[in-house]
Amino acid sequence: MPSRAPRAFAVAACAALVGYNNWVGVQPWHRRWYPAANALATAAVLAAATASGLTPADLGLRRDQLRSGLKLGTVAAAPVVAALGLAALIPATRPLLDDQRVAVLDRRQLAYHVLLRIPVGTVAWEETAFRGVLQAALRRVLAEPAATVVASAVFGLWHIRPTADALAVNQLAPARGDRIAAVAGAAAGTAAAGAVLSLLRERSGSLAAPVLLHLAANSTAPLASALARRLAASR
To answer: How far apart are CA 14 and CA 50, in angstroms?
Structure first.
């Protein structure tokens, strides 16, 4: 592979990921076919990574890396699940879980989100793209911690459009200045979360660790929100 090619691949990956979620993500067809579209995107980035010279070991996908990833990921995920569960059970913290996107879901729709849409369309796609492909691509051209900083920053930018959508649905930050501040704060927060996920990937050597933590947070949150709403209504 030519010496400039790894750098070009890393730059292209950064640009493609930011553009994908903030442009493709707003298209009606993408919203409708979210898990399938993102599963295809996952396959595409893996193919591109392989063509660029990255190996399964580089991506954290080698079989002998799995055990350490599952162990560390479970340790990291357990407190997240426990915290969200407690937040739903304690009346004072239930309002923090209120999410109108969850409130409009019936049981079948909630199950679809928790068991398919989030694991396949969000977690598998994002972890493969960021902690797998992008992190490995950046590590070929940047030293640590610069590679993690760049990958985390891109992860933050990736969440601009979803954050704006969530604010609109929940009728939060209606003023433009407040909305900009909220989106910027969320981008910074998700960048920090991305750094934690990258650290898990590095410490365990496996993509399984960040996958488990990401899945615990994203799938438990809507369940906790639904439980909090039901408990509040039963009072």
So the answer is: 17
CA–CA separation, 103 and 229 (whole Å): 8
Rg (CA), the chain: 18
pTM of the model: 0.90
Residue (of 139, 133, 144) closest to 56 by Cα position: 133
206 and 65 Cβ atoms separated by less than 8 Å: yes
> pLDDT tens digits, residue range 20-74?
988 888 888 998 999 999 999 999 999 999 999 999 999 999 999 899 999 999 9
d(CA 192, CA 3): 31
| Sequence letter at residue 187 | A
- Residue 97 has what pLDDT? 94
> What is the spatial distance between Cα 194 and Cα 151, in angstroms, rounded to a whole number?
8
